[in-house]
Amino acid sequence: MNQQTDKKDAINPFGKLTFLVVDDFENFRLSMRQMLRSCGADKIELVAHATPAIQYCTYNHVDVVLCDYNLGEGKNGQHILEELRHKKLLNRSSLFLMVTAETSKEMVMGAREYQPDGYLTKPLNRAMLEKRLGALIQQRNALLSITREIDRENYPEAISQCLQMLPRQPRYKTWLMKTLGELYFLVGDLSHALKVYEDVLAQRELSWARLGRCKILLKNRNFDQAVTGLKSLIEKHPDYMEAYDLLAEGLEKQGKLIPAQQILERAAEHSPNALLRQKHLAELAGANQDIDTASQAWRQTVSLGTYSIHDNADHYLALAQSLSDLSEGHPEEDGAAQASEALSVLSRMEKRFTEDESVPVKSRIIQCRVHAGQGNHRDAEKLLGSVRQELEKLEEIPSDLGLDYAKTLFRMSHDDQAKALLSDLAGRYSDNADVLQKIENLLDEPVGFRQKIEARGHNRDGITAFESGDLDGAIDAFSSALAIVPDHAALNLNLVQVLLRKHDQAPADHSLLSRCQAHLQRLDTLPEQHRQYRRYLALTRKVKGMIE
Q1: pLDDT at 528
Q2: pLDDT, mean of each 10-residue run, the chain (548 residues)
Q3: By C-alpha distance, which of 185, 184, 143, 174 is closest to 161?
Q4: What share of the chain is helix, strand, coil (3-state, %, to 5)?
Q5: Predicted pLDDT at 418
Q6: What residue segments make up the domains of the chain, in order of their start?
Q7: Beta bridge partner(s), residue 96
Q8: Considering the entire predicted model, what is its pTM?
Q9: pLDDT for the residue numbered 5
Q10: Within 13 Å and on the Cβ side, how many CA atoms surround 142?
Q11: Which residues, in sequence order, are CB contacts of 443 under 8 Å at separation 6+?
Q12: Cβ neighbours of residue 276 under 8 Å, at least 6 residues apart?
């Protein structure tokens, strides 16, 4: 009986499978159903748009999805594939084919990010459908025992099945080796994964094997080798997007944030419709103080999120924050336009994310800064009063909310309130290094973006002057920086060190030690957890000893 069934399946591979056709044109849906039936398919569901497609996959097992890319207003085929992958509504054994008349690079690159199993180009005929889909179904059926184990997350058994099948199914050797490498990596067996990739590369130069090898090098902290390998891979395959993402990760691990940003900028030029990459680019640009690039990447992230499963209120908040930073202190035309856009983004966010109770107060905190930065102090203070009332209702202010509120308090010259709030946060999050770091940064630089950049420029000039032996130039540069951020711990201590070096040259000048004392006294409330605390203690003892 089983042999008869197997023969029947081999003769009619379409017969036992369930199909979902997604297309907004009824005539095409009906035509596709007719072609599938003539190929031997029986279980075929037709839907016009994304919502019923995702709903159907939520409650029904689907073996093959044939989805048009353009579905009119709303989600397109890429969004459907993205959501089905994210929610794990497609089994590893299921096939997703993008059907489209559009062949633009942006569409193909964007869709490819989520790895469809193939493309079918309109107009489509029965012979083309049967040939392309038949070959994919044949492969699916041959590898079904492996994909089922992967869906069950029984990776050791899936590895065993791959190894058994390799000598029996040479036509699928590439798929089996690629899957084997991924499975070994998943279970943490990096040495076997590396051997798989190196065995493949010894026979053929395949980009996925090169990428897999670099992934293992990164995992083993061989950052230089991984970065070199990925740069070479991108040079040979400039459209291989996964290599860009991995290279950016490697450069970040090396502490090279600016080159990492530049790599993601190149990737975004090749494939501009990948939301998560745009988000990563925005975060990197923000860390690099490149707020113009950050705001553009956040703008793209928000736009791509309109129909995406990855849409998030935090993207709108980040865009509004970057626009607020750019507009602060610039009430002229460009600054006013950026401030207006920030307020518009926040308004859209509040309408879009009505179920998140924290959204309105987060929005108003940024609105305060936008109005204050444009000189609208009355509106800013009025909003601040409403924010204060909302926060007083909370038993405890979460760290992200508290940090952004403290930033606003500093911008509106409520420094004492900001410092008290940060002190409370530091006590509550004393075991959270990330939060403590953000508190330190805010205490050190409680000023606007442009002032921060100016102060950091003076600091760099001071370090350069000190290293070249120009002590007077270093004193002037550090003093200029401290005029902007007077409580910055590292800057105060940098200046103390220069003054001490100057005192070595002119020991009779007691005013130099008095200046050292004054700068150290600015830091007398520096918490023990601060990165500069041990340096502060050492310099305090040294100055005290010299005075005594």
Answers
A1: 83
A2: 46 89 95 95 96 96 95 92 94 93 69 80 90 93 95 96 95 96 97 97 95 97 97 94 96 97 96 94 96 97 96 98 93 92 98 95 97 95 95 93 96 94 92 92 91 93 95 95 94 95 90 93 87 93 88
A3: 143
A4: 70, 5, 25
A5: 95
A6: 2-142, 449-547
A7: 65
A8: 0.90
A9: 42
A10: 18
A11: 419, 422, 487, 489
A12: 310
Residues 6+ apart with CB under 8 A from 479: 495
Smallest CA-to-CA distance from 424 within 408, 411, 412, 435 is with: 435
Q: By the 8 A CB rule, do 69 and 102 touch?
A: yes
Please state the length of the chain: 548
Just give the CATH number of 2-142. 3.40.50.2300
Determine the pLDDT at residue 280: 98
What does the alpha-carbon distance between residue 141 and residue 158 come to, in Å, rounded to a whole number?
15
Query: What is the predicted pLDDT for the residue at 1?
Result: 40
CATH code: domain 449-547 is 1.25.40.10
Is residue 244 within 8 A of residue 284, CB to CB? The reply is: no
With beta carbons less than 8 A apart as the criterion, state whether 71 and 47 touch. no
AA identity, residue 480 = S
Q: What single string gives the DSSP state of each residue in 132-157?
A: HHHHHHHHHHHTHHHHHHHHTT-HHH
| Rounded CA separation 495/462 (Å) | 9
DSSP-assigned beta bridge partners for residue 46: 21
**CA–CA gap between residue 315 and residue 409 (Å, rounded):** 22
What is the C-alpha separation between 389 and 400, in angstroms, rounded?
Answer: 18
User: What's the burial of 288, exposed, middle or buried (CB within 10 Å: 0-12/13-18/19+)?
Assistant: middle
Walk across the sheet containing 43-47 and list its strands: 43-47, 18-22, 64-68, 95-100, 118-121
Please tell me the distance from the alpha carbon of residue 226 to that of residue 222, in angstroms, as a whole number: 6
Between the alpha carbon of residue 9 and those of residues 36, 37, 492, the distances in Å are 15, 15, 78
- Burial string for 295-331 (b: 16+ CB within 10 Å, else e) reads bbbbbbbbebbebbbebbbbbbbbbbbbbbbbbbebe
Q: What is the pLDDT of residue 110?
A: 65
Distance, CA of 308 to CA of 471 (rounded, Å): 56
